[in-house]
């Protein structure tokens, strides 16, 4: 059975550019179309007067992002007349460009599918010529946005007559008011500035040229004053910098009183933030300068910060299997992200910004409040949620032993071995934590289904289907608790036999918790399976659940026997 918690939440960012930067009423009407789509959050609106262009950033679930983008493009086509548009930035349409960017839980290949789906709908429904660019391009020449936009709006009538520039979607006829739109899929771009202990723009630029992919102009003899080397076509020859997918320049920030390396990381899978930081530190040191910190401009994916935190933990030979908030703290300290102003993860990390902070979750309660809620008159949280919570405590204890073992004096050669187990433990812990709340949601689904009307035959049929679906869901959730709690035995058993001997009793308690979580969840599987109309499916869950419970009891007995034997040997000594 597929575990719906094995992957992170799917998030896409969308950054459409609209050809209006002065009339805030028009801009608001467009962005209102985005804001009203459920599952999508507006992150930034950046109008430019001189460019007469507004860059909008929003993010959310892929399907909802596509809906919001289409609605915004439609509204822009209604409100913006390209025949009257003037601005300094190149443009060819009311919605000039609309890229989709994978943030988490989704691949670039999947993002391309959504981009092309959006492009097809815009072309067919709005009769706007659409060119697909970057990863979504059907033709190599169209990967480059500047090629798609060549000739701009004014050149469209002639361009659309050229068979080589037939739109990927939509008509080849000139849309005089809406122009044309480029829709694509691209990598996430991180705007990242690194602070130096100097006011010299020249020295900051020297480091920027050292690291950026384009590098610096090649010269004969003296690297600063020598004659520029040209190729056969008369173009300047460049010596590449040390980092790929990196654009950089040095500048002086009067507000801060320091020089910075201003960096655009165009693909953080190729050059992550922490690698750029380390490289600048190295190049600065070679030039007698020091890096004092850095800042992220705009938002950043959670993975980029977690990767940075884990990178620095590994450099220290410390376990990476610690809580997410602790990894973030390490990243913030190591990168100096609060050097100029405080780095607030809730405001800077995309996934945290998108998090619904108005929902009441059991796992957000304090320990005493959770216990009090469980002991109240309400039937939820009940045995299912408590079983998931006990399973969480079990794997957390096993993870604790892994982290203590990783940090044990004299065991430095084994830190990575235990760190890997601690990371696995953290993953299982997060899944079980989600299931604590999910079990209560499952209970509420059954209550909602039972409350449906049953006056007519159609109502009775709908009610019966909803009850059956809710009952199946109420079986699946505790079954997933069983599966995930059982996975924790791999960690717990290893920690009991190979982990820090001073924590062997903790490993024993972890095993008992995991076993209890499995048996408790199995009771919920059985009681809910008794109400399922699909008896063969009910029998499947009961049979598989019994297998998991029996195996869990055997493993628990093995672990507890070993733990007791070790504790008794300690007593004799």
Write down the overall mean pLDDT.
93
Q: Sheet bearing the most strands, described?
A: 7 strands, mixed
Number of DSSP strand runs = 13
Radius of gyration using CA atoms only: 29 Å
- Oligomerization category of the chains in this entry: single chain
User: What's the CATH H-level homologous superfamily of the largest domain?
Assistant: Formiminotetrahydrofolate cyclodeaminase monomer, up-and-down helical bundle
CATH topology of the largest domain: Four Helix Bundle (Hemerythrin (Met), subunit A)
CATH top level assignment of the largest domain: Mainly Alpha
| Morphology | flat
- The helix/strand series, from N terminus to C terminus, equals EEHEEHEHEHHEEHEEEEHEHHHHHHHHHH
- Gap from first CA to last CA: 48 Å
**Beta-sheet strand percentage?**
5-15%
Number of domains: 3
Which percent bin holds the helix content?
Answer: 40-55%
Structural class: alpha+beta
Number of helices: 17
Give the CATH architecture of the largest domain. Up-down Bundle
């Amino acid at each position: 059975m597929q575990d719906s918690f094995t992957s992170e939440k799917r998030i896409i960012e969308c950054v459409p550019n609209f050809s209006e930067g002065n009339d805030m009423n028009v801009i608001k009407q467009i962005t209102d179309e985005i804001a009203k789509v459920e599952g999508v959050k507006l992150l930034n609106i950046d109008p430019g007067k001189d460019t007469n262009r507004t860059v909008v950033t929003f993010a959310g679930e892929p399907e909802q992002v596509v809906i919001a983008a289409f609605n915004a493009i439609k509204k822009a086509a209604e409100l913006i007349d390209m025949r009257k548009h003037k601005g300094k930035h190149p443009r060819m349409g009311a919605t000039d460009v609309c890229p989709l960017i994978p943030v988490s839980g989704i691949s670039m290949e999947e993002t391309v599918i959504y981009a092309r789906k959006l492009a097809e709908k815009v072309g067919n429904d709005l009769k706007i010529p659409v060119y697909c660019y970057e990863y979504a391009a059907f033709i190599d020449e169209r990967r480059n946005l500047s090629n798609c936009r060549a000739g701009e709006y004014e050149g469209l009538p002639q361009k659309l007559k050229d068979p080589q520039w037939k739109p990927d979607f939509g008509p080849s006829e000139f849309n005089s008011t809406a122009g044309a739109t480029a829709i694509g899929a691209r990598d996430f771009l991180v705007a990242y500035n690194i602070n130096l202990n100097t006011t010299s723009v020249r020295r900051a630029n020297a480091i920027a040229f050292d690291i950026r992919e384009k590098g610096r102009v090649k010269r004969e003899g003296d690297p600063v004053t020598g004659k520029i080397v040209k190729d056969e076509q008369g173009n300047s020859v460049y010596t590449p910098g040390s980092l790929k997918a990196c654009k950089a320049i040095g500048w002086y920030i009067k507000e801060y009183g320091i020089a910075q390396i201003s960096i655009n990381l165009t693909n953080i899978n190729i050059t992550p933030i922490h690698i750029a930081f380390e490289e600048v530190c190295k190049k600065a040191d070679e030039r007698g300068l020091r890096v004092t910190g850095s800042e992220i401009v705009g938002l950043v994916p959670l993975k980029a910060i977690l990767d940075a935190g884990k990178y620095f933990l590994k450099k220290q030979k410390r376990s990476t299997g610690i809580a997410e908030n602790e990894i973030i703290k390490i990243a913030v300290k190591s990168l100096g992200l609060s050097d100029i102003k405080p780095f607030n993860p809730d405001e800077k990390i995309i996934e945290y910004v998108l998090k619904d902070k108005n929902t009441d979750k059991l796992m957000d309660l304090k320990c005493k409040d959770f216990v009090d809620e469980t002991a109240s008159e309400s039937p939820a949280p009940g045995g299912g949620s408590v079983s998931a919570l006990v399973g969480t405590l079990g794997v957390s204890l096993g993870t604790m032993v892994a982290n203590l073992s990783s940090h044990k004096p004299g065991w430095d050669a084994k830190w990575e071995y235990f760190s890997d187990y601690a990371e696995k433990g953290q993953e299982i812990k997060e899944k079980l934590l989600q299931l604590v709340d999910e079990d209560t949601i499952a209970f509420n689904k059954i209550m909602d289904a039972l409350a449906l009307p049953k006056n007519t035959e159609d109502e009775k049929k709908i009610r019966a289907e909803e009850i059956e679906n809710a009952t199946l869901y109420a079986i699946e959730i505790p079954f997933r608790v069983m599966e995930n709690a059982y996975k924790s035995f791999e960690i717990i058993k290893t920690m009991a036999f190979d982990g820090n001997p001073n924590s062997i009793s903790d490993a024993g308690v972890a095993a008992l918790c995991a076993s209890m979580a499995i048996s408790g969840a199995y009771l919920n599987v059985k009681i809910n399976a008794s109400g399922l109309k699909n008896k063969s499916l009910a029998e499947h869950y009961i049979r598989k659940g019994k297998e998991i419970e029996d195996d869990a009891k055997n493993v628990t007995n093995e672990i507890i026997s070993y733990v007791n034997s070790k504790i008794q040997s300690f007593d004799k000594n």
